[in-house]
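Title: Prediction job returns without error message
Component: structure pipeline
Severity: low
Priority: P3
Assignee: unassigned

Description:
Job completed but the reporter wants confirmation the result is attached to the right record. Sequence as submitted:
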Amino acid sequence: MLARSPQAALQRLFDEVGSVDQVGIEERVAKYGTRSIKKGAKIWGLKTAVSMVDLTTLEGKDTPGKVASLCQKALQPHDAELGVPQVAAVCVYPAMVKHARKALGSDTAVRIASVATAFPSGQAPLKTRLAEVKAAVADGADEIDMVINRGAFLAGEFGEVQDEIAAVVTACGDATLKVILEVSELETYDNIRAASFLAMRVIRPGDFIKTSTGKTSLNATLGNNQVMLEAIRDFYLDTGIPIAMKPAGGIRTAKQALTFLVAVKETLGDAWLNNNRYRFGASSLLNDLVRQLEKEKTGAYQAPYYFSEAAESY
């Protein structure tokens, strides 16, 4: 019996979900940065972007004290007079979830996200990955960020990819799931669109697809973000199921964040301009957003050291 060709399997999937016009995508996203955003809309956009940040620390030297400090920054990113909202979530390794829960308490809108499933490689037995998810949820995680099996995807083993995602959905219980595609390892826009559809078909309304772990050379770009937004749009038009989106890694400035929000508004509409349907996995972004809000209020930039150090972005 002849072995199934991975490329043939991929081509069948491309034929099913549609391929990507790379030139068209690049032309479209180039226009987003030319949009003029007036003062009132800019302030709204900056505050909305703050409310979408997943404030993150993912280091081997993380301690309960560091996580507690991160949680305090999540609850109050700046002084109350500026009117800066809380961030969407703090994101930590599973071992730190219980410390984040202790620091945040139970009566807060700031959620606890935890990377799991052998983040960032995903190279562990499925049984181990599922146990990690269940442990993080038991310790108080509201959200789980998982990585897909990129090797299985590139080998054309799409059923295996979807079965593993479905198993993580079950292990999450009531916790929200974010499925990380790791776009740099998928390599092409066609692969990114196809992987988006595979994930969306087995996750739940309100779960996320996410670009990256932030641990590879290429993370979120306007291009791969656009491919995934259009996949979400097309899936929603076909099924009526709203899937959320999270670009992660490489988004460091307020100007970048506002351009990403323009992409969301023009592709998916206002219903996605909230932290239930869109997030930024870029903790170093938070300080620049606050700095720009200060500038809008006072007319002058504060020095970068005026703001507390951001955690690692991903």
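Comment from assignee: result matches the submitted record. The longest helix spans residues 222-239.
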